[in-house]
Each structure stands twice: as C-alpha cells, then as structure tokens.
C-alpha cells in the first residue's frame, strides 16, 4: 500500500522589495554592457545608456527611488564593468559617481512633485531638463574628485568630458523613455487613420530621414545642420516620442560614428566635449518645440471640449449632437438600416428650480445625464439640446430595442432622488424609422411631437411613433 501523496504547497511569490531592486540591477547591467561596447577604446562613452535608463525608472516609477534600488543600480553597472575587464577599484569609483548623479537628478525632478513624471508639456520638460543638468554636474563633480583622490587606481577624468557625456545621454534617452505613455492593449489602426496621417505625419518623417541620410553623405557641418529644419517640422506634426526618437537617432549618428573620424571637430581616436555638447544643444531645439506643441494641443483639446460638450452634464452640445447624428445617419442611409431618436424632458423642472433652488436643478440635470448615458448601447449619440431637454440617437436599433432603452431610462429616473424624497422623472418621445432618413430633421420633429404627447398624457411615460 503506497503512502498518501502529500499535497504540494505553492511557494509564496517574491515580495516587491526583492523583485524591484533585482529588476533594476538586471536592466542596468544589460544597458551598461551596451554602452561599454559602443564606446571607443580607452575613452568615455559618448552616450552612456545605464544612467539615462535608471533616471527614467526612478522618476516614472517613484517606488524605485530607495536605497535598495540605488544599490542595485550600482551593482548592475559595476558587474558590467568587471565583465568587460575594468579594474575593480576604477569600476567602483566611477559607478559611485553614476549612482550619485542619478539620485541627485531624480530628487531634483521630484522636488515638491512626488507624482510620476511623464512628458506631457513644456513644464514637465523643463523639470526634466533641470534635473538632467543637476545629475550631470553632480556626477561629473563626484567622478573628478574621486579620481583625483585615487589617482593610482582610477583613470583621470575630465569634468567637461564626463559632464557632456552625461548630459547628452540623459537628454536623448531619458526623454524617449518618459515620452512613451502606457496604454491599453494594442489595436491595429484603421484605414481611415492612415488616410488622416498620410500627409501630416509621414511626409515630415520621410523628409527628416532623407536629410539625415544626405547629411551622412555630406561632410563637415552639414552633417549637423541639414536635418534640423525637418526635425523642427516633425516636432509640430508627430507625437513627442517620435520627435525624441528621430532626434536621438540623428544625434547618435553624429556622436557615435561621425565624431570618431573628426567630422565634428574631434580628431581621430579622440573625443571633443565641445562637439558632444554642441550636438546636445542643437537637439534641444526639436525637443523644446515638441514640448511647446504639446501645450498648444492641450489648449486646442480644451477648446474642442468646450465647443463639443456641455460643461455641466458632459453630454454633447446641441450643435455637436446634430452634426454627429447627421454623420452617423449618412452611414446608415445607403444600407437602409433602422434608426431611432429619443427626445427626453425632465418633468416639473421649473418647479425644482423654484422650490429647491438652481443648485438642485443643476444636480437634477447632472444625474439625469448620468442615467441616460449609463443606459445607452455602444454607438449611441447623446446630447443636451435645451435647458432640461436631451436627445439620443440609436443607430441600427429595432423598435423593441429602442423602446427598451427608453423604458430603462424612464425607470432609472423614477429612482433618481435629489434632496429628501423629491424625485426627477422624465418624459420621453421616441421616433423610429425602419430605414434611416437622409436628414436628422424628420426624426427630431417626430420625436418632439411624441414628447409633447407624453407630457400631455401625464408625464413619466414613453410615447413611440414610427416614421412612415
């Protein structure tokens, strides 16, 4: 007789206090190796990936800004240096400067702003820029001081070369990482999307890439200057992350390839901090224009919201409702699809305002809009077309479905309490057509007459009319 099986007890998951530092160490180790293998022999890297990635981690996910994660950053960089043959003392000293610079920059960026940083406009970009400068200055100062004290075991550090390398790395790479926003699951763009972006996005990008290639073929200052107008054009047309990526590609080519053969004023097998800083400062132009463009787009979006939506209820304004309803009807006419339109009016709204005050009337409108929106199927269009009147377009709804939606809204209003036991009921007129008309006007007129019948019939009811 075999012994009974002992049930396996699942292992508890590792706590975040262990997982977060470990993930930081692994990520920094990999990007540090990348930076080591792209630098010229015996010289500092023109772009040091590890610090830029670490700064992006701790300002976008502030939980990483603690002692264990900073130590993990240090360990990841040291491990990459040791694996690449760097002397242990030199690896420890130089990466101490890296870790201190990242912490100084993160604390500067998060000063009085503990929330995660995303590049959503020029104020956020200004905060990031100040933090980048502080991180670069602190890191260069620490590296210079430590290498001077331990001159026998560490290579001499030029403060200008260290600062320029740190500054350009932070500016190009951290900006890209902080400009990419996390969203929902990816969905393939529709053909209409490609039609809309064909000229406004594709053409500037193609021009920028073409001029970058032309600059590579050219010699001297054209390498830097030729793509700049196209990059500025892209900054006003494409997302911030796209501008940051294009700018980084352009600057990276200048620094990692052209700088080695003296095109930017650096001799062969040498580095010029002035050339590195020059590229970084030129790269600031497209990034700053892209940040200001985000501000302009935010203002335009607010203006669009004010024009399209009712500020009190959040439903569409009258003009926006009519415009969108007509566009939706245009897609239904050719296919002879059914359509319904509801006209809704709060009962005794004037009495609510007169007896309970206008504040209570506003509450009634907001809660009524909530009842309406929560009952609507996907694809419906809802708007406030008058003081206490709302309208809803139900595309491709048969008569039973439209009636069910209207009755759901009416019953939800019966349970809608304002103050004390006072309720706000609603009367609804429903116009239904088996084939969508060419204009929204017949639906509105029919639904308005049905609403009048509902009011005259005692309120808190639905009256449905079918268009001939």
Automatic annotation (TrEMBL):
<feature type="transmembrane region" description="Helical">
    <location>
        <begin position="89"/>
        <end position="109"/>
    </location>
</feature>
<keyword id="KW-0472">Membrane</keyword>
<feature type="transmembrane region" description="Helical">
    <location>
        <begin position="196"/>
        <end position="218"/>
    </location>
</feature>
<dbReference type="InterPro" id="IPR000160">
    <property type="entry name" value="GGDEF_dom"/>
</dbReference>
<feature type="transmembrane region" description="Helical">
    <location>
        <begin position="18"/>
        <end position="36"/>
    </location>
</feature>
<feature type="transmembrane region" description="Helical">
    <location>
        <begin position="274"/>
        <end position="294"/>
    </location>
</feature>
<feature type="domain" description="GGDEF">
    <location>
        <begin position="337"/>
        <end position="467"/>
    </location>
</feature>
<feature type="transmembrane region" description="Helical">
    <location>
        <begin position="42"/>
        <end position="58"/>
    </location>
</feature>
<keyword id="KW-0812">Transmembrane</keyword>
<feature type="transmembrane region" description="Helical">
    <location>
        <begin position="230"/>
        <end position="253"/>
    </location>
</feature>
<keyword id="KW-1133">Transmembrane helix</keyword>
<dbReference type="InterPro" id="IPR050469">
    <property type="entry name" value="Diguanylate_Cyclase"/>
</dbReference>
<feature type="transmembrane region" description="Helical">
    <location>
        <begin position="167"/>
        <end position="184"/>
    </location>
</feature>
<dbReference type="InterPro" id="IPR029787">
    <property type="entry name" value="Nucleotide_cyclase"/>
</dbReference>
<dbReference type="InterPro" id="IPR043128">
    <property type="entry name" value="Rev_trsase/Diguanyl_cyclase"/>
</dbReference>
<dbReference type="Pfam" id="PF00990">
    <property type="entry name" value="GGDEF"/>
</dbReference>
<protein>
    <submittedName>
        <fullName>Diguanylate cyclase</fullName>
    </submittedName>
</protein>
<feature type="transmembrane region" description="Helical">
    <location>
        <begin position="130"/>
        <end position="151"/>
    </location>
</feature>
